[in-house]
Amino acid sequence: MELGQWLEINEPIVRSYLLSLKPSQVGKTLTGTKLSHGHHEFKGYKYIANLSAPDRSLYMYKFRYEYKGNKYEAHYIWVNKGFPEHDLNVSPSCPGKWIEPGGWGILSGDQYTYQAALPGDNIVVTTCQLPMPNNTLKRDAAKGRRAP
Q1: Residue 46, φ and ψ in degrees, nearest 5
Q2: Running DSSP on this structure, what letter comes out for residue 93?
Q3: What is the widest separation between alpha-carbon atoms in the chain?
Q4: 108 near 137, Cβ under 8 Å?
Q5: pTM to 2 decimal places
Q6: Which H or E run contains 15?
Q7: Is the Cβ–Cβ distance between 58 and 83 less than 8 Å?
Q8: For a FRET experiment, which of 19, 39, 46, 57 has its CA 20 to 30 Å from that of 137?
Q9: Distance CA 74, CA 78 (A)
Q10: Each residue's pLDDT expressed in tens, for the chain with a length of 148 residues
């Protein structure tokens, strides 16, 4: 299946799933939604926030997940046709390091090279690797010791 066909099938599935998320699910780990190739998008992701601005037809959802011992934050973003683009350099922010190159991709995992989420275009997925906590400092603080 060509990339364009794959996106035509799977982006509506993801949009529908994201639009169905309820405020009561914030903070919960999700079971995800099944895509055409059998992968469950969002499986194991913790739903953090709906950062959407419906008056601007901007849709942005924030998640956290763990992969191979590292913690990540992901945002799924799109703008409906007929509305202004959304500058990805303005938001979302990354409290850690953007995954190189740029930290931006599309649902298929391919790199997204524009600096904005374009109206009527693909869902943009941003991925940020979160800083790892310093367990030694935490352990020492719990024992009442100060760092050297």
Answers
A1: -95, 125
A2: -
A3: 59
A4: no
A5: 0.86
A6: helix 3-20
A7: yes
A8: 46
A9: 13
A10: 798 899 999 999 999 999 999 999 999 999 999 999 899 999 999 999 999 999 999 999 999 999 999 999 999 999 999 999 999 988 888 889 988 666 799 999 889 989 999 999 999 999 999 998 765 445 554 555 544 4
Token couple for 103: 């930290």
Pairing state between β 104-106 and 124-129: antiparallel
Find the distance separating the first CA and the last CA of the chain, reported in whole Å: 57
Q: Tokens 């950062």 sit at which residue? A: 51
* Buried/exposed code over 71-95 (b: 16+ C-beta within 10 A; e: otherwise): bbbbbbbbbeeeeeebebeeebeee
Amino acid at 84: P
- Which one, of 130, 111, 113, lies nearest residue 46 by Cα? 130
